[in-house]
Amino acid sequence: MIQRAMLAAVASAALLVASLLHVVSGEAERLQRDAASRAGAVIERGATLYGLHCRTCHGSRGEGVGQLGPALGDGQFFTKRLQEVGWQSTLREYVVSTTTHGRLMGTRPIYAGNGATAVMPPWYEEQGGMLRSDEIAAIADFVLNWQATATGQLELKRLALPEQNPQDPRTIARGEQVFKKHCLRCHEAAKGGASALAGPPLANIATLANGRREGMTAQDYIRESILIPAAYRREGYAAPDKGQDCGAVLTESELAAVIAFLSR
Amino acid sequence: MKPHQSFLLHIRPQSFAAESAAFLNTYYLGFFSVFFLVLECVTGAVLMVYYVPTPEAAYESIVRLGTEVAFGAMIRDLHRLGGEGMIVVLLLHMLRVFSSGSYRGPFAFTWVTGVLLLVCTLGLAFSGYLLPWDQLAYWAVTIGTSMVDTIPGIGVDLGVLLRGGVEFGADGLLRFYLLHIAVLPLVALLLLAVHYYRVARLHGIAPPLSPRGPTDQEKAKRRLFPDRLLLDLTLSMSALAVLVVVVTTFYDAPLEHHADPRHTPAHTRAPWFFLWLQGALKLGDSFSMGVLFPLFCLLGLLALPYVDRLPRRPLRQRPLALPLLVGGVLLFIGLSVLGLPRYGVAVNPVAALLEEVAPEEGRSALHSLRFDTLRQGVYEIDGTFRAQRDDDFAWWLHGLGQATAGLGAHGYLEPRSVVVVEDWQAELKRITVRMHWLDGSEERRPASAEKVIYLHRDTAEPVVPGKEGGA
User: What are the pLDDT digits (tens) for B345-386?
Assistant: First the structure.
């Protein structure tokens, strides 16, 4: 009786030791795999956040957008920028720090931040922004992942996407939906100026915008107004608050669609 | 008697009645409850070394467990699965005691301490649920505690006391952490002391209710040393071995995105042991279903041995007990099923399909395809889409085509999907899934919806060396 019980105890002990040994033997590899997969997931997350918050000014592939923001995915940024500004630490620190604090003053004249151009806003929540530190770190990982393509180690073929035809009724219909969802609460087509939020009516913006700025098509005017509503002030309308901008949440194709809708 | 023996014998009785302690009488459920409790304490102590109870650091510290700490993932998985296992064992233990009627007479107060232990364990599971500070935890616990707010009069104040504010924040997390590592374990150990003292010293384990008198063999005693102790050791070590194998091969404790109070997730789902409550909430208002109903169940359980005072009899001779038992179990299961997110909440079929293709949390089906089969391109698919190539991705597209065609049954005319795969960065692809359809109105206006997902090679299914593929 006792002997059988002893035997069972020894057998179970052996079982336990065997299972633990099995874990020990695979643990180093597991750690490596999980760390890599975690790093990949962080870049994925950073890509999503970048698309939501940074793309409008820095371009969806980090190519920069006109006067709105500089390129973050080119060779200049990866090889020369740190010397240019005299930054002592790493590029990653530079991205994290710039994103965290924003810029009170632009370092280049075209981003002077004089009201007519965009400034780099602070993003960290403790600085009045809307991102947590782990989100900023994720975006930084994503930005730094441009290194291979920016420095020419890797060449990615661009997919030739079919142009969205602004005359296509599908595009216009899509733009109308985007407008209803994102813009209508401020830009009621008929009346305007009713609430503190309200922006100007946009029913005939296409004709109004045409030629309002010299050398600028109506489409470009609308595009820039959506991205920075304060760029061209209209008498009698409040400058929209931060976080209440016209279309920072739109994707590039939504933006194109809503512009097609407004200039139909 | 050696000192170590006398210490053990001080806690545990020197011998057991063989028939009471037999497997077919107890199924060792009480033993396994204690086994899990010890497992939780030991793994919990290890986790405390790494865990940081602040909203800024909690999530990162859990991530570190998986990516930097040797055996960290295993310890966390053991702790998580062990906690759930403990609840299962406790519930079975309770069913066993109920059906054998061994909650009556001298056992009455022991039953009461047992019920309180169950409540304590649920409290531990609930408070522990919050600690990883991910979306899953944050929203399940936010919804769970919001029921407290509905108590008339004191509810709101009580809620603030519990959460440390109107919303969960640093204070609430610290409170739940202290509940989890100090208050509730202390209460549980105290209750367990009373419970075990009564079982071991006062009334013993209730013997089986056999119609014939016990035979001599069954009346025999079994000594603690060495018989019972060897058995306990054998059971513990084999159970632990099984758990270790299970958590390292089949189970991963979930970890969603970092908690974000500004973003309500697509699904908030209670842990399975509270699904019944989520189901009950769909049947009535939060106060009556979320507070009164569980309170009523609890009081019913506590009062049971004092209401039912007849002598012990086998289950078939207790006309009320069987319906009560079956009814209770069915109610638990029924409410839990009702609590699943798919019941009672109307979902837009396009949104549901997009969420399935590119879920907000966890790995998408795309993550389990081989990374290199996702070739850059624009893939137009409708119900008649045929896979041209024979690889994972082509089959996935085929499946999406069928699911898209299925939208036709919901009044979406001419549904079709477009999938765009772009090489976005080194080892990173961007996948856009867009659905187009014509709405049901007179003009048949075109409409569409889309979702974007990014895929990194290292999160996609690792390519097994030797298998075809890889860069």
Answer: 677 888 888 988 888 887 888 888 889 888 898 888 865 666
**Rounded to a whole number, what is the distance in Å from the CA of B238 to chain A's nearest CA?**
5
Instruction: Select the residue from A1, A4, A27, A42 to test the B interface by mutation, using most B Cβ atoms within 10 A.
Output: A27
pLDDT band at A263 (very low <50, low <70, confident <90, very high): confident
Q: Which 26-55 residues of chain A touch chain B by CB within 8 A?
A: 26-28, 30-31, 33-41, 43-45, 47-48, 51
Q: What is the DSSP letter of B465?
A: T
A177 and B446 within 8 Å at the Cβ level: the answer is no
The pTM for the full model equals 0.82
B144-159: pLDDT as tens digits:
999 999 999 899 999 9
User: Which CATH number fits the domain A55-150, given the four candidates 1.20.1260, 2.30.30, 1.10.760, 3.90.1570?
Assistant: 1.10.760
Q: Tell me the C-alpha distance between B85 and B38, whole Å.
A: 12
Cα separation, B387 vs A136, in Å, equals 40
CB-based contact A8 B71, cutoff 8 Å: no
In SS3 terms, B3-39 reads as: HHHHHHHHHCCCEEEHHHHCHHHHCCHHHHHHHHHHH
Q: What is the least distance, in Å, from the CA of A16 to any CA of chain B? A: 4
One-letter-per-residue 3-state SS of B235-286:
HHHHHHHHHHHHHHHCCCCCCCCECCCCCCCCCCCCCHHHHHHHHHHCCCCH
Amino acid (1-letter code) at residue B78: L
Query: What topology is assigned to B3-343 in CATH?
Result: Cytochrome Bc1 Complex; Chain C (1.20.810)
CA B377 – CA B395 distance, rounded (Å): 16
What end-to-end distance do the CA atoms of chain A give, in Å?
A: 92
The answer to whether A44 contacts B459, with C-beta atoms less than 8 Å apart, is: yes
> Which of A134, A157, A171 should be substituted to probe chain B, the one whose Cβ sees the most B Cβ atoms within 10 Å?
A134
Given B66, B258, B430, which is nearest A134 (Cβ)? B258
B162 closest CA partner among B126, B115, B116, B118: B126
Strands, E assignment, B121-246: 221-223
Which CATH number applies to A169-262?
1.10.760.10
What is the spatial distance between Cα A242 and Cα A122, in angstroms, rounded to a whole number? 11
User: Helix, strand or coil for residue A113?
Assistant: coil
CA distance A44 to A33: 17
Q: CA B271 to CA A190: how far, in whole Å? A: 50
Which residues of chain A does B70 touch, with a Cβ-Cβ cutoff of 8 Å? 27-28, 31
Q: Do domains A55-150 and A169-262 have the same CATH topology?
A: yes
DSSP 8-state class, residue B289 = I
